[in-house]
Design brief:
Layout lengths: L50 E11 L4 E4 L4 H16 L6 E4 L9 E5 L12 E5 L3 E6 L2 H14 L16 E10 L5 E7 L7 H13 L4 E5 L1 E2 L2 E2 L8 H4 L3 E2 L21 E2 L4 H13 L3 E8 L4 H6 L29 H17 L4 E5 L6 H5 L1 H9 L5 H18 L3 E5 L12 E4 L4 H8 L4 E3 L2 H4 L21 H5 L10 H4 L2 E6 L9 H20 L7 H17 L12 E7 L4 E7 L7 E4 L10 E2 L4 E3 L3 E9 L2 E2 L4 E5 L9 E5 L29 E4 L3 E12 L2 E8 L10 E7 L6 E7 L10 E8 L5 E9 L17 E9 L1
Parallel strand pairs: 2-3, 2-4, 4-6, 8-9, 8-19, 9-14, 14-15, 15-16, 16-17, 17-18, 18-19
Antiparallel strand pairs: 1-7, 5-6, 5-7, 10-11, 12-13, 20-21, 21-24, 22-23, 22-25, 25-26, 25-27, 28-30, 29-36, 30-35, 31-34, 31-36, 32-33, 32-35
Bound molecules: acetamide and zinc ion.
Length: 802
């Protein structure tokens, strides 16, 4: 059994006693009149509490320490038991648990007590007060007490699990302080795909422990998908007899696994029995984690069709794919009423197992090829007066929502459920960027933010060259930490519909439980602070230092976490006084020195150690890396730094860049930094569907020889060259002259990514103060392209003026 899951089954034994001995329910009237102004950096709690004030002194937990709770509350007893079990398992003293009595006023104790004035408390909020004599946790819900206890656990020394010599009893010191805390968002989620790879229930419970440890409150259990059905449904036994098993091709890359051959045994898989599910649901409830089950429909369901081909459009036969199943043309038939009977039967059993108000119906990535050809689906479109297959999907989801709502529950779906019309009460999970969340909120629907850019923890978190194979992308710890769940486009009223955010862990490239931990845990902790802590408390440097303490705690629990990227980041700023560029380096590793060169030579362990911003007056070629024990940890970062007339000069935007590819923001096009062939390297500024149109103010009229802008083409990622770039000049920023066009001459069909300069050379003696650049976006992806008719990207890194 994994280490932390044993917390639930500890046998410390609650020392119950007769309530009548202690009279009426005791309510503590505790005053928190002090102003919580002072902060401390010696406390390493993650997520950082809303308010915290460090005091002097310590409370020492010893074998004599009592654990006292307000009488007659089962939740409090359960939370107290959780804490006592935790201490015991970690090798600490066995606390004596009992209900609070009048005579305990001065007892050396950890006390869980309801406050006198309950109105001051938010539902999941708590107050924690540590004095040399007592630790007092106050809250108005079991969740609040649980979170107070989680903060108390994080006040124990970070290496609290280190074994003692036999016979010794550990005592632990907790620093005196006062905390007032509550979450920013009500929905704080983590997802796990158990279809692409199956993980035993013991691991799911360990995962829930980790979720709860960081005050996340929702586990989105992705129980069904093409590669395996994972939940026992009594009425449809073939779902697990057939749908839960596939041929074992684990030795081959995910995208290169041949389908099952006739007669080949399906040996990879597994599922949770209904008893398993009940056990996990109860385990999660004790940790104030709600489980939202997901049953995918109408697509990502070829495992259902393998078991019950009569629910398909074509009749099959099918096999459960052992790897990639794309395009996913075989989906549930929308014209067959027995499909809906089946799904309602499944949902009825699912609702019997999961008390969650929300049920997730998937709805993502439905390929409509078969629906277009299926007489039943077409008849349904006609009978219901639907416009097309998108509206047929909407019909499908709305029909399921009606059933779910009739049972007193609510439905969630991926953002495709917006297409063809949103079901009346649906909550949208925004994954293809944030647009789905914005659209839902504007339509008055709730939304949960889980955009691929920041919340997909199956993406790489460090240099792919030195990481285990992942699905792609690059979402570093720092990037997750930078995530703001409320899109800036929303009004305050619309923003109330953003319930929170969730990290998604798809497991195509995650075959083991150790790998789930490696990909998910550190980034989950970053997201936990995003969704729990006040926005103004977010501070990357503070977080990263507190993570060092969390890493020690995770070591205690033998969690296979990732320490993040060892890449050096480069940023620039302009010093107008000295008319020079200042170059700064940073990394996700605060304790590891950065070694660098400026002349293009590879750094060695003898190179200069970075100690603060470096001034650069001319061109340079930067190479910088992190060295641990004399060895380079990740490939060094290299960057030509170009000195030119527009460096550091203000840029006015006429067409806005996309929030998805901002590079360093409004200074990005004059920061001297160039992009690489990787469009996600953070140096490229992207414009989706619109032109790049900017005016640079050089500060004073000066001679201009040339203007050059580099653009990236990577048509596989829908990034094209501009059709033309127009350069013009002005003395006053109003009237522009010397309007010159540079036309694109390279084919959009070029398959490999490349960088193309668009340069214009002015006549000798040309002068200007303002330089205007307009790069024409080709508009829509061409008809031969996979994104035909959708908006194109254009990507620029720098406007170089000589
Ligand atoms: C998804 O990633 N297909 C929701
Ligand atoms: Zn059909």
């Amino acid at each position: 059994m994994p280490y932390i899951t044993s917390l639930a089954t500890g046998a410390a034994g609650y020392k119950s006693f007769a309530l009548k001995q202690f009279g009426l329910l005791l309510i503590f009237a505790l005053s928190f009149a002090q102003i919580f102004a002072q902060e401390t950096n010696t406390i390493n709690i993650v997520p950082i509490p809303a308010e915290m004030k460090l005091k002097t002194g310590q409370f020492i937990i010893t074998p004599q320490t009592l654990m006292l709770v307000s009488p007659q509350d089962k939740n409090l007893k359960q939370v107290a038991q959780f804490f006592a079990d935790h201490l015991r398992i970690m090798g600490g003293p066995e606390l004596q648990l009992r209900e609070y009595a009048e005579t305990d006023k001065k007892a050396l104790a950890v006390i869980l007590a309801f406050p006198k004035d309950k109105t001051k408390f938010k539902p999941e909020g708590y107050e924690l007060k540590v004095t040399p004599g007592q630790v007092i946790v106050q809250a108005v819900t079991g969740a609040g007490f649980f979170y107070g206890i989680q903060s108390l656990i994080q006040l124990l020394p970070a290496d609290y699990c280190t074994p003692l010599k036999t016979g010794k009893v550990r005592t632990w010191a907790v620093p005196c302080l006062e905390i007032k805390d509550h979450p920013r968002f009500p929905y704080r989620g983590m997802h796990l795909d158990v279809s692409r790879h199956f993980f035993p229930k013991e691991f799911v419970m360990r995962y829930i422990d980790l979720i709860a440890l960081y005050k996340m409150n929702t586990f989105h259990w992705h129980l069904t998908d093409d590669n395996g059905w994972r939940i026992e449904i009594k009425k449809y036994p073939k779902l697990t007899e057939i749908g839960a098993w596939r041929v074992d091709r684990e030795n081959l890359p995910w995208g290169e696994r041949p389908a099952q051959k006739p007669g080949e045994p399906a040996t990879y898989g597994g599922f949770y029995t209904q008893d398993d599910i009940r056990e996990v649901v109860a385990y999660a409830a004790q940790r104030y984690v709600t489980i939202i089950p997901e049953i995918e429909m109408p697509a990502h369901s070829v495992e259902v069709l393998t078991a019950y081909p009569q629910f398909s459009c074509t009749g099959g036969p099918f096999t459960v794919p052992p790897g990639s199943y794309w395009p996913n043309t075989d989906i549930l038939c929308a014209g067959n009423d027995s499909v809906f009977t089946f799904l309602q039967d499944v949902m009825t059993e699912v609702m019997g197992l999961f008390p969650s108000v929300y049920l997730h119906v998937g709805g993502d990535e439905a390929d409509k090829t078969n629906w277009k050809k299926c007489p039943k689906c077409q008849a349904r479109i006609k009978a219901e007066g639907l416009k097309d297959e998108k509206e047929l999907q909407s019909y499908f989801i709305k029909r399921m929502e009606k059933f779910i709502v009739s049972k007193g529950r609510k439905m969630i779906g991926w953002d495709e459920i917006l297409e063809g019309g949103l079901a009346p009460e649906a909550t949208v999970m925004s994954w293809r960027g944030v647009e789905g969340g914005i659209a839902a909120a504007r339509q008055g629907h709730d939304a949960i933010m889980t955009p691929g850019s920041h919340c997909y923890f199956d993406y790489y978190q460090a240099n792919p060259d030195s990481e285990p194979k992942a699905i792609g992308g690059l979402t570093t710890l720092k990037k997750v930490y930078s995530y703001e769940p409320v899109p800036g486009e929303l009004s305050a009223k619309e923003a109330e519909h953003i319930l929170g955010a969730q990290g998604n862990v798809w497991t195509e490239f995650i075959p083991s439980t150790a790998q789930v931990e490696y990909m998910a845990v550190s980034r989950m902790i970053a997201l936990a602070e995003v969704v729990w802590s006040p926005k103004q408390k977010r501070d990357w440097k503070s977080f990263r230092l507190r993570m060092n303490s969390q890493f020690k705690r995770l070591d205690c629990m033998k969690v296979n976490y990732c320490k993040g990227s060892y890449r050096v980041g480069i940023s620039t700023s302009y010093d107008p006084k000295g008319n020079q560029m200042m170059v700064s380096f940073d990394s996700e590793q605060p304790d590891v020195p950065i070694l660098y060169t400026l002349d293009g030579n590879d750094p060695t362990n003898k190179s200069k150690v970075y100690a603060g911003p470096i001034s650069i007056v001319d061109n340079a070629y930067i190479k910088a890396g992190l060295y641990v024990d004399g060895n380079l940890k990740e490939k060094f970062t290299e960057m030509p730094l170009i000195s030119h007339l527009a460096i550091g000069k203000p840029v006015k935007y006429i067409g806005n860049y996309s929030y998805r590819y901002p590079a360093s923001g409004i200074g990005a096009l004059t920061d001297g930094l160039r992009g690489s062939i990787n469009h996600r390297d953070g140096m490229w500024q992207g414009f989706l569907g619109n032109d790049l149109e900017v005016v640079i103010d050089l500060g004073k009229e000066m001679p201009i020889n040339s203007v050059q802008t580099n653009f990236l083409q990577n048509q596989k990622s829908w990034i094209f060259l501009p059709s033309l770039v127009e350069y013009s000049l002005s003395p006053d920023g109003k009237k522009f002259h010397s309007i010159n066009e540079v036309l694109n001459t390279v084919s959009p069909k070029e398959t490999n990514a490349f960088i193309e300069p668009f340069t214009f050379q002015f006549n000798q003696g040309t002068t200007a103060r303002y330089v205007k650049v307009k790069a024409k976006n080709p508009g829509k992806c061409p008809p031969w392209h996979e994104g035909a008719g959708e908006d194109c990207w254009i990507f620029a890194d720098e406007i170089v003026v000589y």
